[in-house]
Amino acid sequence: MKFLLYLLLALVVVPFQTTLLHYFSVFGVRPDLGLVAACLVGFLGGELDGLILGLLLGCFQDMLSAGDLWINVVTKGGGGFLAGLAGRHMAHITPAVLTAGLAIISCLSSAVFLYSMSPAGIDEVWMGVRSTVLVQASFDALVGAGLYLLFRQRWSDDRMVTEGAL
Amino acid sequence: MAISRSTYGTRRLAIVLFACLLVALFLLPSQSQRLLQYVGGPLGQILSVPLAAFSSVDHGISETWNAYLALQSVHEENRQLHRDLELLKGQNNQLRESVAATRRYETLLNFKQQSPSQTLAAQVIGRDATNWYGGMILNKGESDGVRVEMGVVTPAGVVGRIVKTNSTSSVVLLVTDPNNAIAGVVQRTRDEGIVEGTSHGRARLKYIPLLSRVQAGDRVVTSGLTGTFPRGLAIGGLTQVEKSEGDLFQSAEIEPEVDLSKLDEVLIITAPYEDADSAQKLLQEIRGDRKKP
Description:
The complex is a heterodimer.
Chain A: H1 2-19, H2 33-45, H3 47-63, H4 71-88, H5 95-116, H6 122-165
Chain B: H1 8-27, H2 29-74, H3 82-85, H4 89-114, E1 118-127, E2 135-138, E3 151-154, E4 157-165, E5 170-174, E6 181-186, E7 192-197, E8 203-209, E9 219-222, E10 234-242, E11 249-256, E12 265-271, H5 276-291
Antiparallel strand pairs in B: 1-2, 1-12, 2-5, 3-4, 3-12, 4-5, 6-7, 6-9, 7-8, 8-11, 9-10, 10-11
Helix pairs in contact in B: 1-2, 2-4
C-alpha cells in the first residue's frame, strides 16, 4: 500500500517538476522536488521509506533528464537513505534542523552531479557551486521546511504514535 | 499519509539494497545501464500519462499569458473599438493564438519542404528534470521513429540532439550544454571546429586552426561530417574570438541562432539526407567543389 502511495507521489512530482516548475525558478534554478520529497519521507519515515521513494523518483527523473541513467537513482535514493539515518538519530526534528539537513543533502547530491559532468577546471567548479549548488540547496531547504511546516501537525502525530509503539 | 519508522531489520535491508545497487552500478556500468533502460520502458508508458496532463496545463498557462501580452500590445490601438468588440474579444484571442500557431507551423512546413532531410515535427512538453543539464522533453518517442543521436532543429537553426528516448517521449540535449559536441564550420572561412556548450548557457567553437582569420560576426553552420545533421544548418554567430599564446588552436564564443528558452515546436531529423540520390548528389557537389582551383 505504502509502495503504491510512493509510486503515485513519484508520478505526480516528476511530471510537475519537468513541466510546470520553471514558473517558480530563481536565477534559472528550480528546486529539486524529487530530492525534497525523498528527504522529507526519509527524515520522518525512516531510511527504507526514504530509499524506496528516492529510487522511484530517481528512476522517473532519469528518464526525463539528459544525464546518465544512474545519476538520479543514486542521488535521490542516497538522499532519502541519508535523511532516514539522520532522522533516526534525532529526538526532535525542528524546522531549523530539517532546513539544515536538506541543505546539506542537496549540496551532496549536487556535488555528485558536478563531479559527473567532469568540469574542466576549478573555475568551472566554482561557477557550478555559485550558480547552481548553493541556489538549489537554499531553494530545496526552504521548500522542504515550508512543506514540513504545512504538514507538521500530521507528521508530529505519526511520529508520536509510532515512536510510542516502538 | 501514515509513515511509520522502519525497524532494525528493514534498516539492514535498506543498507544492503542500496549497497548492492551502488556495487552493480560501479562494477557493471554498461549492464546496469541496459537494465535501467529495460526497466525504464514500461515505466515510461506509465509516466507519459501524468506528463501529458501536466504538459497540457503548462501549455494552457503559457497560451493564456501570451494572449494577455498580445492584448496589452493592441489595447491602445483598439480602445475606440473596444465596446463593439467586447463580445468578440474572447473569440478574437483564440483566433490570434491560432494564427500565431499556424504561422509557426507554416514556417516549419516550409523549412521541412526545402530541407534535404527527412524530419518529424514535435512539441516541447517539458524541461530537463534536473538543473544540471540543458535538456528538453519532446512529445515524440520510439513509437514515432525517434532514435538516440538524431538531430533537432527549427527553421532558425540547430537546437540539439536526442540523447534519450522512450516509447512516447524523448530528451534533447541542447547545443548550449557542455556535454554536447557538434561538428561545425565557419561559413566565411570554411574553417572546421567542434561546437560545444558552455556553463554560461552559450556555445563555443573549439579547435579552429591557429592561422584561421575568423572574426566576430562570422556565422557557424553544421559541417555535415557527422551523421546527425546535414551540412549548412545555422548554429550561431561568433561573438568573441580567443587566441592565447602557446595554444595550438583558437576558440570562439557563439551566440546560438535559436532562442532556446522560447521553443514550442521543433523538427527532429530522422534522416539527414532524404534518400540515397540526394546524398549522392551532395557528394558529387562536394567533389565538384574540391576539383575547382
